[in-house]
Design a protein that fits this description.
The chain is of the alpha/beta class. The chain folds into two domains: 233 residues, Type I PLP-dependent aspartate aminotransferase-like (Major domain) (Aspartate Aminotransferase, domain 2, 3-Layer(aba) Sandwich), CATH 3.40.640.10; 87 residues, Aspartate Aminotransferase, domain 1 (Alpha-Beta Complex). It has 14 helices and ten strands. Bound molecules: ligand TLP. The site of ligand TLP has 13 residues, from helix 3.
Length: 341
């Protein structure tokens, strides 16, 4: 039985499934610092295998996973390239600057994809003036363009440019499983064009805590060093890692349901005169209710009245579809909204 969780604000609001709660309660634990927590070890083994990489580490959050990955690829004073609206650049409190002394070179993308000529221009001349550019960061799915998946072909293009210049490549794959499911491919196919990938367990996959970083033994050993520095060397973390194993093994395929429900919702809202600001790609809608004369408060109140949580912005908002919302809930919401509009 899926517990209802009608909260549009984010897929970070997902609650663990009953199976995850049970796994947490029964998890075998040990001291992760000594490498002795069997559940953490299992999670890291499963993650590495799914992504087709040598190794993985369990991190406390997506932000920590991105931070330790970026630190693992760079030296102080280096610069990195990322998409201009990338989460790690705009939202993660500048860990790359404060902890890594890194210099950002943001490049505007096209639906999250960095045009290779723009990446080349941003790298500049490696010898001569300017800081060394040692890292390229991608984001898949790309949040600011509406949760757009990057294809393996797109990732390869930028990966190849980075490799021409001996750079590391990191992907913020907070929602990389949404990308894989939307593209109908294995996540390992996307992982091929990245040296490290951070994948969140606690978004659409519904685990309560954490993310994994995958990569080669060498880069993961380095990331592990920085995870320790950032306080991520948890102890009996099996309690939170065990639900993560279920997230990876049982919750990936069901993301297709979220994408289908998002589509039903998008079509229904458009019929009511509520527009989409960005094309729907995966599990997020960016809506605009100005055409029906609504303000943020009208939207939030309508949702509230119908049993949903949503934070209305002045002209529109983001709706994230996730575990805990089912087709019948979407249908009921649309019926209710039809009356209110
Ligand atoms: N995103 C959250 C908020 O921070 C905006 C959300 O509600 O979407 N990369 C991407 C692409 C993300 O969307 C997020 C979280 C993270 C990294 C960070 O993950 P956490 O919150 O686990 O540190």
């Amino acid at each position: 039985m899926v517990e209802k969780n009608l909260d549009f604000r984010s897929d970070t609001t997902t609650w663990p499934s009953p199976e995850m709660r049970e796994a947490a309660a029964k998890a075998a634990v040990g001291d992760m610092g000594y490498g002795e927590d069997p559940s953490v070890n299992e999670l890291e083994r499963v993650a590495a295998e799914m992504f087709g990489k040598e190794a993985a580490i369990f991190c406390t959050s997506g932000t920590q996973g991105n931070a330790v990955s970026m630190l693992a690829h760079t030296d102080r004073g280096d610069s990195f390239i990322c998409e201009a609206r990338a989460h790690l650049y705009t939202i993660e409190r500048g860990h790359w600057s404060v902890i890594g002394s890194l210099i950002p070179k943001p490049v505007p993308g096209v639906e999250g994809f960095l045009p290779p000529e723009a990446v080349r221009a941003a790298i500049g001349r490696r010898r001569g003036a300017g800081p060394r550019t040692s890292l390229l960061c991608m984001e898949n799915t790309h949040l600011s363009s509406g949760g757009t998946p990057l294809t393996p072909e797109q990732m390869k293009i930028d990966f190849d440019v980075a490799k021409e210049h001996d750079m590391g490549v990191h992907t913020d794959g907070a929602r990389i499983f949404n990308a894989a499911v939307a593209l109908g491919i294995k996540v390992s196919e996307l992982a091929e064009y990245s040296d490290t990938i951070q994948a969140c367990l606690s978004k659409g996959l519904a685990a309560p805590v954490g993310s994994v970083v995958v990569g080669s033994e060498e880069v993961i050993a380095e990331a592990k060093y920085y995870r320790s520095m950032l306080g991520g060397n948890m102890r009996q973390a099996g309690i939170i890692a065990a639900p993560g194993v279920i997230a990876l093994t049982k919750m990936v395929d069901r993301l297709a349901e979220d994408h289908a429900n998002a589509k039903v919702l998008a079509e229904g809202l458009q019929k009511l005169g509520i527009k989409l600001r960005l094309p729907l790609k995966t599990n997020m809608l960016f809506i605009d209710y100005t055409d029906i004369g609504w303000k943020g408060e009208d939207w939030s109140n309508a949702c509230n009245e119908l049993g949903w949580k949503s934070r209305g912005g002045p002209t529109g908002t983001r709706l994230v579809i996730h575990y805990g919302m089912e087709r019948e809930d979407i249908d009921a919401l649309l019926e209710g909204l039809a009356k209110l509009v």
